[in-house]
Amino acid sequence: MNKTANQMLVIFGASGDLTARKLVPALFNLYKAKQLPENFVVLGVSRSNMTDGEFRKKVVQESTYLKDKVKDASLDFINTFADKFFYEDLGEDYNKVYNKLATRISDLNNKFSTGENYIFYLSTPPSLYEVIAKNLSEQGLNNETNGWKRIIVEKPFGYSLETAKKLNIGLQTYFNESQIYRIDHYLGKETVQNLLVTRFSNSIFEPLWNRNYIHHIEITNAESVGVEKRGGYYDKSGALRDMFQNHLLQIVSLIVMEPPIDASAQEIRNEKVKALKSLRIMRDEETLYNNTVRGQYLASVIDGKKVKGYREEEGVDPNSKTETYAAIKFFVDNWRWKDVPFYVRTAKRMPTKVTEVVIHFKSPHHQVFKNSDMNNKDNQLIIRIQPDEGILIKFGVKVPGQGFTVERANLDFYYSNLADNNVMDAYERLLLDAMQGDATLYARADEVEAAWEFVDPILDYWKNGSDVNIYGYSSGVWGPTNSDRLLEGDLKWRNPGENLADDPGFCVIK
Ligand code: BG6
Question: Is 57 annotated as contributing to ligand binding?
Fold first, then answer.
């Protein structure tokens, strides 16, 4: 276990949902696992008027998000955790002189000996990132002469390439790149990190991981929920900005990248940037038409319950053209991946919640068992990111009896079968990494920009293109059938079920 230095976590936007829903439960897990440093303080900062006690009640003692986690803990244990929390009201505006805040930070530091090591977690709208960074720097709170200073920013990191660049320049004016941690919670998922291990610690996979053996790659990210209460945000964002530009392109970069020299943050992130830069950018309308499909969910009845269409959701423009479904086909222009198509889909209101990567291998180049129905049944390596986390290999076996009839069999591994299967929650892992100064699982400025570089022309085409459509799909189905046109030849999307080993198209009626 790495040692975590004494420190203070200052959360901006502390009265918001993310603090109570994700950050505090993650901190509680770390507290339970004895992973918090001996001297540790959380200072919540926002514009609500609250006392320390009220803040503790809100995010710890009376938080619905902690209920399950604290149910077996003693009152003493919970209160010792709650006592680490303090609150500072910024008043009306984030853009003000932070001298009062700086004094509070300094007082808490002196009282609790946090070594002037501070993490500033910005859980605020991105429009405030630069303002907060500037005001912190004016108080010398970026200065690392005594103790380190780190700043964590949440997505969305920019709205386009241009805005992302501006934001990077803005933040880097006040903090060094090595102090900036851009969070992408998918990188905190154990199964996403396992992509690296699967590839680079198994000599049975890596030699096959290229255009000679791989036919195509498919990534599906499906959610059964709609936009829930985030219509206002989502309508300005859409699936491509919300999921694809960040989480899915992060997964793509781990699949595409070359082996790093070692497992350091610098080397891994260098390779990821190279991978993202090798995605072939689609520039002309014909290419964009042929390789992208967007859709929007419509009202439907699921399991006997009426669900709203996207345009009827709260905060959504009734004439909105924002996509809740995005399917993109693309190629990677480098030696390893030439001509291998990548198919990536993400959507809301799908039949189930699932994220998986499917590596489809080429058929054997000489078919020995001609009369078997092996054709069109490729070998597949299915990497299940969530749920039912695990890995499945589909391969051919002989059906017992005369002749050579070949059938598909499954070889599977489930995380839940591991003796030590305590999978850290993504935020827990990422917070601990930042507390220890490990930025491997955080996105670097050039990574974020490379991802936007690929996404920008698609967004522009979807907004301004002459022949671009948005297709409706009923809530609860696998998106618009129009997306089938992206697939080459006889290919079909693998529509995964709730369980890793379910056959495609598998559907449970409740
Ligand atoms: C967030 C998106 O980043 O990821 C949400 O803003 C989405 O729209 C969520 O629901 C999905 O995360 P997970 O971990 O549940 O797959």
Answer: no
Flag whether 398 is marked binding. no
- The per-residue pLDDT for 53 is 97
* CATH, range 7-154: 3.40.50.720
Torsion of CA 223, 224, 226, 229, to 10 degrees: -90
Task: Indicate if 187-423+467-486 has the same CATH topology as 7-154.
Answer: no
Q: Which residues of 419-451 are buried (b: 16+ CB within 10 A; e: fewer)?
A: eeeeebbbbbbbbbbbbbbebebbbbbbbbbbb
The list of the chain residues with pLDDT below 50 reads none
| Burial per residue of 393-418, b for 16 or more beta-carbon CB atoms within 10 angstroms, e otherwise | bbebeeeeeeeeebeeeeebebeeee
- State the pTM of this model: 0.93
User: What's the token pair of residue 465?
Assistant: 């293109």
pLDDT digits (tens, 9 = 90+) for 344-398: 999 999 999 999 999 999 988 888 877 666 555 789 999 999 888 899 999 888 8
CA 214 to chain centroid: 25
- Between the CA of 223 and the centroid of ligand 1 the distance, in Å, is 8
Q: Is the CB of 184 under 6 A from ligand 1?
A: no
Q: Is 353 part of any known ligand binding site? A: yes
Q: What pLDDT was estimated at residue 1? A: 64
Rounded-to-integer distance, Cα 280 and Cα 257, Å: 14
21 is in an annotated binding site: no
Nearest CA to ligand 1 atom 14: 186
Q: Whose CA is nearest to atom 6 of ligand 1?
A: 242
Catalytic positions? 247
Q: What ranges do the domains of the chain cover? A: 7-154, 187-423+467-486
- Give the residue, by CA position, lying nearest to ligand 1 atom 15: 223
What is the CA(443)–ligand 1 centre distance, in A?
A: 17
Instruction: Please name which of 472, 179, 434, 193 lies closest in space to residue 323, comparing C-alpha atoms.
Output: 472
Centroid of ligand 1 to alpha carbon of 207 (angstroms): 33
Could you identify the atom of ligand 1 that is nearest to the CA of residue 230? Answer: 8
The Å distance, Cα 251 to ligand 1 centre, comes to 14
- What is the spatial distance between Cα 414 and Cα 411, in angstroms, rounded to a whole number? 10
Collapse the DSSP code of 14 into the 3-class scheme (helix H, G, I; strand E, B; otherwise coil) and give the result. Answer: coil
Up-side HSE of residue 252: CA atoms within 13 Å toward CB?
Answer: 37
| pLDDT for 174 | 97
Just give the CATH number of 187-423+467-486: 3.30.360.10
Cβ of 223 below 6 Å from ligand 1: yes
Q: What is the pLDDT of residue 407?
A: 83
